[in-house]
Amino acid sequence: MYSEDDLNSAVAAGALSADAAASFRAHMTLVREMPRGDEENFRLINSFNDIFVAIGVVIMLLAAGAIGQAIAAAFAPVTDIFGTVAEPTDAQFDAYAAATEWRSALTALFAGVLVAATAWPLAEFFTRRRRMALPSIILLLAFVGACFAAVIGIGLALGALDNEGSGGLFIAGAGLVAAGAAYLHWRRFMVPITVAAGVAALTVTVGALIISALSTAIALDGGNMGDILLLLTFVLGLAVFAFAMRWDISDRERITRRSDVAFWLHLLAAPMLAHPVFYSLGVMDGGDRVGVGGALGVIAIYVVFGLVALAVDRRALLVSALAYVLAALTFLFDRFGAVELNFALTALVIGSALLSLSAFWTPIRGVLVRQLPQGWRDRLPDSAPVPIGGLRASAS
Fold first, then answer.
1. What percent of the chain has a predicted confidence (pLDDT) above 70?
2. Fewest beta carbons within 10 Å, which of 232, 240, 355, 382?
3. CA angle, 30 then 32 then 36, to 5°
4. How far, in Å, CA of 278 to CA of 302, rounded?
5. Residue 360 neighbours by CB under 8 Å, 6+ apart
6. C-alpha to C-alpha distance for 193 and 146, rounded to whole angstroms
7. For 159-192, how does the pLDDT look when each residue is reduced to its tens digit (9 = 90+)?
8. Minimal CA–CA distance to 196: which of 148, 137, 147, 114?
9. CA 145 – CA 48 distance, rounded (Å)
10. Smallest Cα–Cα separation from 40: which of 373, 384, 362?
């Protein structure tokens, strides 16, 4: 499978003319009866070799983490007091807890360093030279996550995570380091998911700083903290969505790497927007709290999400909110007497709606986009219908 990035690379190298690439894109639009932008193309697997290499990469990274854990165990031995002492004293238990926490800190530090040190050189070959999609994604996530874990390990070792104030600051620092690691990785390898990983790390930094400031300024109980986290997640999700739209607007035809970057950013923003909205309605707390009004509200919000997804030509919002709609519909069918068939009816309704929307995505989107202001239409992907009649004529 060849991606848009491969086509652009071939054009840049002179192996393919720009006109030939444009003709190929137009031909694939006619063959699939859908504009290529509407398909949200992104490369996950080039061939089965990607899966084969990905398995090897995961094994190597697990081995690096296991070696880090073994090194931590050598530097921080922990005596099992429960197997040697019938009734450990408070002092013995405190010493055991301290030793366990010290080992956990060193494990996060050493394992993080070794995983990051393993992921980078592997990316030099499988990402920079071989341009393999799935291994590149795994190596990027491993590198950024390992850098984050290593800093968290330092925080655990210093005892900085023992209270919300200093813990929030240290988590913010870890997020900043992870964002820096993502930036370095992007400059070297330019894997599309890297921008989303860096933005996710920055959202952790911003969220941790705000929580740390609030916990220091005012006393918060568990309920207030949960509400603040939901609101903060939603606001940060809006910021990520806006950032994703900036990348989308810069490539309306979706033929460059910028479109792939926007895809992963939308995939990050979608759960950050969907979870706070639906969780605040009590969808996942059981039907008694939701009520009929709440369940209908969930469906109405999902319709709004669907309209936004159609307008921006991205399906991430629909996928992220799907579990909440399934729960709401199941409750409604159960409430109105279809107890034995509630799951079947829910699956039938949702499945039919999604398949119908997928089949008629382009014409439905065309109708919707034509209702938007001209300024918005100029920034959204093209919604022109596919000339299927021309395809039939050319095929005959």
1. 82
2. 355
3. 80
4. 9
5. none
6. 16
7. 877 776 778 888 999 999 999 999 999 999 999 9
8. 137
9. 26
10. 362
